[in-house]
Design a protein that fits this description.
Helices cover 79% and strands 0% of the residues. By secondary structure, it is an all-alpha fold. Helix 3 (69-92) packs antiparallel against helix 4 (99-125).
């Protein structure tokens, strides 16, 4: 367990907020985004549903007075994998987004990568609790 720095707590809160807005956009706006981006609406909607679970976990973690260090590392790792997978999606040819779709994927990948970095910095600024004897 760690005493989270204010920096870490804010990074997690902003990550949850950004991811929550993205989840709502993807779940409820997939039918609008799909033709604009040339991405399948089912893919967009399911991505949003995955984000709902992520938001609940990160949002809960951000409210804790003490945080399991492993949970913070898990959030950082998930964000890093999301970033890498987003770029891999573009180069794999599995989907064929148009230019707006490519920009959409790259911009969210950059944002998620920034969150991973900010959370890593915040984790380094956080203090391990002092053992009491």
């Amino acid at each position: 367990m760690i005493h989270p720095s204010t920096f870490l707590r804010r990074a997690l809160q902003i990550d949850a907020l950004f991811s929550g807005v993205s989840a709502l956009l993807l779940v409820f706006g997939a039918n609008i985004l799909a033709p604009m981006t040339n991405l399948p609406d089912g893919f967009l909607r399911n991505t949003g549903l995955v984000l709902v679970a992520f938001v609940l976990g990160v949002g809960y973690l951000a409210t804790r007075e003490m945080m399991p260090k492993a949970a913070v590392w898990a959030v950082i790792a998930i964000n890093a994998v999301w970033t890498i997978d987003s770029i891999a999606l573009l180069v794999s040819g599995w989907l064929s987004p148009n230019l707006l779709g490519q920009v959409f994927i790259v911009m969210q990948a950059i944002a998620v990568g920034v969150f991973a970095e900010l959370e890593f910095i915040g984790l380094r600024k956080s203090a391990d609790p002092v053992a009491v004897r």
